[in-house]
Design the sequence.
């Protein structure tokens, strides 16, 4: 691996070159991708999208989704060609690929898939009692825990029925998290068994780092996914985050990650250019899940795990708003927000889409500054 | 009279405070058929007027009903000559009924009594109310989290929460008329809140759905009982509601058919 000292001008120069290269590549690829998505009708439909408000947002119907492919393709290609370090970049790219694959499957099934039938728990229990064939009854008994798991996760889904179901999503995301945890715990070395604390040094977590990593990869990927609700919101916020992350990696002198983060940043410049209102395409789960997982890995890989909630501030706030809303709805019977995630709450309060997005960007930028400052302590 | 805030709350149920659209009476909705669980209280017939309005606006925007815009302003008023065909208030009422937005009898009584006791006695009745013994820990916890949703007619009929009033001369505002096992199939309960008593007329308010009002015209209503035979039970007096008297008055019929009909007063 190339080694650089902290604040190395050479590393910064290289990182900027990667960012420029990625941006140019993405700008060239974007129109091709838009045409491809339109040709195959991979576009947004109102059928399962409850957030498309009458009149004001109906123009979004027909906008291509899966625009996140742009970033995934460009980042993967540039990393494979110019920044492929088996010790450092293959797992982040691999996990991003798994998550992006999951997101792509969800996007495509939501458009082209049929409504999937699910056996409910009472139905399964009835079948166990009444089915005339004993081996079918035995099968239902053996698969009962799976059905319970399936049904218990259904409450987390926003529009269950089509696409990848929640329990399938959770399992695949768990796999992505587990791979990351294995890599961090067994491959990166003892230094990564500890948690860096600003101003205070390190706290040893030993094997507890494994569940923490799995949780953070799953949570961050879903948090970015939740924030992808307004034109430019997820793209712009990710751009700010990866810019901050590039700066932190550069400060730390971690060459492979500085270049990887810079590549993502460059690709996101082009993506956001086409994604601001009125969007030429939207990120889709392929981009949000992939980049969300990559964000979590890259922060943990430079051993700044504690900064993840600050570096992903807007995403975490959006995810938290959904958790709180569900909690209040189910347990207290009242709404905390007019609608969750948080950006929809402001929409219902009458804020324009542009106003919400720009204010969220600015708030997010402020927290990135805090993260960079903390990273230097 | 009930406290001013309690009276104001009843008025808000009788005339939901939609901006620009007066005259929308809160419909009746009870969750026994839909049996929604762990749902917003406004969607199970236990919401405050403001919550019903908020939810109506959210549903309208979310599902493109075109009744309210994102700032909550009614779009129906903007349609030319709309009033002559279907007045906005009527359309909104239909919209509320179609979307299960309304209030049931115990929810209405609980909210109004809560305001009344907060103002007159400085107590929150939900904190004093007895739901289930603490040994039934799950139910106890649920009742603690969602008290209004768990204050049913049966709870009001319990001696742990209320005491029976024997004479109609003792009736005061805030007392309750409780009907158990009433209706044609003797399978429902009803509760009515007494709002005033001057020993000649007893006034009450309740949330109910009379069969004669059809699918959309039901809701919170006021009525009165004229004391024409002093000293005799309430059922021997003249019940007046919406211009109907006694046998034509379905509230009276409900009271008459109930297996148990009692006047009760909150104990604390």
Sequence:
């Amino acid at each position: 691996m190339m080694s650089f000292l902290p604040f190395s001008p050479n590393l910064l120069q290289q990182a900027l070159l990667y960012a420029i290269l990625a941006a140019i590549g993405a700008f060239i690829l974007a129109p091709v991708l838009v045409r491809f998505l339109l040709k195959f009708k991979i576009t947004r439909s109102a059928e399962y999208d409850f957030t498309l408000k009458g009149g004001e947002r109906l123009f979004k119907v027909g906008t291509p989704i899966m625009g996140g492919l742009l970033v995934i393709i460009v980042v993967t290609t540039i990393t494979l060609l110019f920044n492929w370090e088996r010790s450092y970049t293959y797992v982040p790219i691999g996990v991003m690929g798994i998550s992006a694959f999951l997101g792509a499957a969800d996007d495509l099934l939501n458009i082209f898939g049929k409504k999937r039938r699910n056996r409910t728990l009472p139905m399964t229990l009835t079948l166990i009692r009444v089915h005339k064939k004993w081996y079918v009854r035995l099968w239902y008994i053996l698969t009962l825990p799976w059905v319970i798991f399936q049904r218990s996760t259904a409450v987390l889904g926003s529009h269950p029925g089509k696409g990848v179901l929640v329990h399938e999503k959770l399992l695949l995301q768990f796999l992505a998290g587990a791979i990351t945890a294995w890599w961090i715990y067994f491959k990166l070395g003892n230094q990564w068994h500890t948690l860096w604390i600003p101003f205070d040094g390190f706290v040893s977590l030993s094997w507890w780092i494994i569940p923490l990593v799995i949780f953070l990869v799953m949570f961050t990927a879903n948090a970015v996914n939740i924030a992808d609700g307004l034109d430019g919101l997820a793209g712009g916020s990710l751009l700010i985050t990866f810019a901050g992350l590039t700066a932190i990696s550069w400060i730390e002198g971690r060459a492979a990650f500085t270049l990887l983060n810079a590549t993502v940043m460059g690709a996101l410049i082009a993506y956001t250019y086409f994604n601001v209102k009125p969007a030429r395409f939207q990120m889709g789960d392929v981009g949000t899940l992939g980049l969300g997982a990559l964000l979590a890995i890259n922060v943990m890989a430079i051993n700044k795990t504690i900064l993840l909630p600050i570096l992903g501030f807007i995403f975490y706030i959006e995810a938290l708003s959904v958790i709180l809303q569900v909690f209040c709805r189910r347990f207290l019977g009242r709404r905390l927000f007019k609608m969750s995630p948080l950006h929809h709450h402001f929409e219902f309060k009458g804020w324009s889409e542009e106003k919400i997005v720009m204010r969220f960007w600015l708030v997010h930028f402020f927290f990135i500054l805090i993260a960079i400052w903390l990273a230097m302590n | 009279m009930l406290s001013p805030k309690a009276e104001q709350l009843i008025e808000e149920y009788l005339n939901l405070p939609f901006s620009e659209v007066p005259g929308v009476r809160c419909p009746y909705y009870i969750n026994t058929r839909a049996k929604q669980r762990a749902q917003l209280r406004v969607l199970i017939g236990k919401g405050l007027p403001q919550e019903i309005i908020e939810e109506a606006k959210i549903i309208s925007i979310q599902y493109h009903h075109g009744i309210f815009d994102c700032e909550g302003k009614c779009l129906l008023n903007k349609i030319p000559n709309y009033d002559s065909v279907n007045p906005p208030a009527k359309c909104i009422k239909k919209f509320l009924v179609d979307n299960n937005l309304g209030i049931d009898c115990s929810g209405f009584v609980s909210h109004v009594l809560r305001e009344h006791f907060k103002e007159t006695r400085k107590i929150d009745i939900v904190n004093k109310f007895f739901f289930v013994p603490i040994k039934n820990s799950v139910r106890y916890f649920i009742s603690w989290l969602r008290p209004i949703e768990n204050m049913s007619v049966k709870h009001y009929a319990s001696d742990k929460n209320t005491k029976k009033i024997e004479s109609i001369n003792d009736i005061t505002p805030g007392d309750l008329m409780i009907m158990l096992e009433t209706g044609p199939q003797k399978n429902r309960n009803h509760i009515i809140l007494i709002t005033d008593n001057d020993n000649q007329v007893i006034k009450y308010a309740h949330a109910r759905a009379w069969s004669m009002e059809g699918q959309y015209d039901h809701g919170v209503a006021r009525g009165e009982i004229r004391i024409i035979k002093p000293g005799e039970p309430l059922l021997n007096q003249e019940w007046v509601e919406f211009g109907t008297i006694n046998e034509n008055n379905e509230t009276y019929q409900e009271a008459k058919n109930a297996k148990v009909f009692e006047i009760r007063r909150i104990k604390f």
The interface with chain A takes residues 38-42, 44, 46, 51, 54, 57-58, 61-66, 70-71, 145-146, 149 of chain B (CB under 8 Å). The first strand of chain B starts at residue 162 and ends at 165.
